[in-house]
Amino acid sequence: MEKLIITGPTPLKGEVEINGAKNAAVAILPATLLIDGVCTINNLPNISDVQILCKILEEMGAKITWNNNNEITIDTRNINKTQAPLDLTSKFRASYYLIGAMLGRTGEIQVGMPGGCKLGARPIDQHIKGFELLGADVIVEKGTITAKAKCLHSNSIYMDIVSVGATINVMLAAVLAKGTTIIDNAAKEPHIVDVANFLNTMGADIRGAGTDVIKINGVEKLHGDATYSVVPDQIEAGTFMLAAMASKGDVLIKNCITKHLESITAKIVEIGGNVEDNGDSIRVWYNKRPNKSNIKTLPYPGFPTDLQPQMGVVLATANGTSIINESIWESRFQYTAELNKMGANITAQGKSAIFEGVDELFGAPVYSTDLRAGAALIIAGVSANGITEVYNLQYIDRGYENIEEKFRKLGANIQRIKE
Ligand code: UD1
After folding, report:
1. What's the pLDDT at 93?
2. Quick one: 220 and 317 in the same domain?
3. What's the domain count of the chain?
4. Final residue in a domain of this structure, among 213, 229, 245
5. Are 151 and 178 in contact (CB under 8 A)?
């Protein structure tokens, strides 16, 4: 078992380079199944979710070459299985994208029931509804999902809930379907635009990604033979923006698209922080106690649920009482019990939590309860007085490449130890 040992407090100072977006990468890799050819993907985050997906694709017949730490060339001409390895697909949530992609490619796929962080009930009814409206039969039984279609056809699909995963999955299935598919009430996250851009680079005809109506004109074939660069990770960038705030530091976050960070920038300014927006980099600095604030998580362009725990660390030591309402994942407040072990005064009940700001946090042993909770606990450890031990690093490694090295470069006293 590994753990991080962090000795704080350290005001983080310096520059940090952001990797490609996890949530785009875990969709683009399955999307390569729609190509009968070879393509190169760079700015790929080298994280455990990506490594598992590469293993899954290889087991299905893809040939993957790592050109360097963040670039792969993938040849999907010899895909020869319609069953993805059940044990690996059950390990993480984004394996559901194999369904949309393989329905598009061969009209048949079986995957293990998607797993992932325990954030509460994570239904996939909107994915299934979309596939069925495109002409597929979907059976969910004994921990597996089987989807089959003789021939997918276009349709108009209204999403009952704004869902990132369902929007992308239906888009994948519709790329090679006959006719024009319309997804209404689509999610608008930057990674949805990125997956559409990837597919369009390979020959798809998708319009309107980034708005709530996406139109997919089915094409005969995707050609490959192109290189695509994954969009910078807005959540990783936001994590370091909030780390700068919590630690009373001064950090320049490079390789990001600041337009994607507007909801975070607005909140940071509201609580007193300084932000300098340079378009492809952003500097955040502040050396005082932040003001209280109320937050409600929402689909993009609202405040992202994936930055809620990191913001929670900032508000834990704010001047006054703050309230966070979580509208996406009901179990996202598990980290608050860990922060309370570090001296925070947070009362979480259902979908909201009250943060009575305390003067400071102190070091303690704490357990990551999911990926973003893990990032929040690292920020708390860097900002707290004394020694913090962070356990359950497997969650953090799912979505952040070299996280402790990046914090160390900013001055943090942080070490990964094998026990
Ligand atoms: C994606 C992100 C995750 C982020 C979340 C919300 C990936 C791999 N993961 O997850 O990091 O926290 O978006 O921004 O991109 N829902 C249904 N039925 C469905 C699908 C979703 O009821 O068929 C509900 C969910 O329970 C949740 C809400 O819709 O309450 C949003 O979920 P969704 O956007 O689908 O999240 P994911 O795509 O799983």
Report:
1. 84
2. no
3. 2
4. 229
5. yes
Expressed as residue numbers, the domain containing 195 is 22-229
pLDDT for residue 116 is more than 80: no
Q: State the average pLDDT over residues 43-61.
A: 96
Neighbours of 171 (CB within 10 A): 27
277 and 219 co-located in one domain: no
pLDDT (tens digit, 9 = 90+) per residue, 352-402? 999 999 999 999 999 999 999 999 999 999 999 999 999 999 999 999 999
Residue nearest to atom 27 of ligand 1 (CA): 328
| Residue 313: CB atoms within 10 Å | 29
Residue of 29, 119, 159, 163 best suited for mutating to test ligand 1, as the one with most atoms within 8 Å of CB: 163
Active site residue 39: no
Q: Which residues contact 343 (CB under 8 A, 6 or more apart)?
A: 358, 360, 361, 362, 364, 384
Position in ligand 1 atom list of the atom nearest CA 23: 15
Q: Hey, which of 158, 159, 164 would you mutate to test ligand 1's pocket, going by the most ligand atoms within 8 Å of its Cβ?
A: 164
Residues in the ligand 1 pocket, defined by CB under 6 Å? 23, 26, 93-94, 121-127, 161, 163-166, 187, 305-306, 328
